[in-house]
Amino acid sequence: MTNLNVFAQIVVNEILNGGATTTQSLAESWNNQWADLLQNNTSNNLYGSLTNLGIFFAVGTLLFFMIQWLRDVLDNEYSRPLSALIWPFIVVILLANPGNGTILSNLTLGLRNFINTVNQQVVQAGDSNQTYQQALNLSIAEEIVGSYLRPCQTLTGIQQTQCFTEAKKKIDYLWAEYRSLYGDKTWISRLETKVNLVIDNPGTEPELALNSLVGATVQTSIKSFLISLQFAFQNLIESTMLLIAVLGPLAVGGSLLPIAGKPIFAWLTGFLSAGIAKISFSIIAVLTAAVIMNGPAEDLSADPDLMWFIIFLGILAPILSLVLAGVGGLAVFNAIGNTAALVRDRV
């Protein structure tokens, strides 16, 4: 029982102020790590080491670049060598000054900040009424209440009455917190009525009503796991973007290889794909929450089982956002490749 109460308190503390605030706090918690790796003291950290390795790759691949360039000149393909000369300058500019943060690191950090800004704008625009936050709380409200009432289920008589009284104090505080955040919403009143029906009639209310309210321990554990899973996915996206960012110097250093597909294009596509996954998840979560808050949440007589919403956020939404990121990343890669070919033909 103690573990369930701890879970309830954690849920109250973390989800009451969720929604857009949670999305923003996740990004902000990674800010220091991004700054430390890409800007602060890069002469002694991992990014600085990879930048030096990227410079080594660039010097090594420059030999292959010059061989191909001279071959094109000897074959009288002057337009192609002239357009190809831009690549050594791009590599030098991006990887110069590795000790104090390169232009590449600053551009990478700027792109990351732009993606986060767009993501936050999407969440705030779609979550103006805190729909995502409310949908999460609506989905787990009965589990929180159940953790307070469940210990009373095995008691009888005066002991059960006293247990219900203590539980009511905690639950009333929960309703007050909900109303201070969202106002007097229908779903709050419906849950409050349902709880009061059990608490105010100990021993006379059918056992089925109490059981349906407190739920099952297994379901509570599953919801706790799935809520944690969606937060884990958002942190996974942040760590993936950071990993791709750190590998940027290697992609730039290998871009002098005389091949059609430049590694820098693949790197940029991967970074943008992770950003698309992040934004897609936010859009999916906010839109699904809006469906709940505009539907069963407004029906006073409804008694919805929103387990599907937690499953959707924890499992299906991450999968869908990754699929959209893959499709979007492929489109970005093709667009970059076509643009590079167009520029090469025009120069």
Major beta sheet summary: none
Q: Note the overall shape.
A: elongated
Radius of gyration: 28 Å
Class derived from helix and strand content: mainly alpha
Strand content: under 5%
Give the uncertain stretches in residue-range form: 1-13
Average of pLDDT: 77
Helix content: over 70%
What string gives the helices and strands in order? HHHHHHHHHHHHHH
How would you portray this structure in words?
There is one protein chain. This protein has 347 residues and is an all-alpha fold. The protein is 80% helix and 0% strand. The longest helix has 40 residues, at 307-346. The termini are far apart. 36% of the residues are buried. Mean pLDDT is 77; it is low at 1-13.
Q: Can you describe this structure in just a few lines?
A:
With 347 residues, this protein is an all-alpha fold. It has helices at residues 2-15, 20-38, 46-74, 79-84, 86-95, 103-126, 131-149, 157-182, 186-199, 207-214, 217-246, 248-253, 263-293, 307-346.
Summary keywords:
mainly alpha, elongated, disordered N terminus, 347 residues
Secondary-structure topology with pairs:
Layout: H1 2-15, H2 20-38, H3 46-74, H4 79-84, H5 86-95, H6 103-126, H7 131-149, H8 157-182, H9 186-199, H10 207-214, H11 217-246, H12 248-253, H13 263-293, H14 307-346
Helix pairs in contact: 1-7, 2-6, 2-11, 3-5, 6-13, 7-8, 7-9, 7-13, 8-9, 11-13, 11-14, 13-14
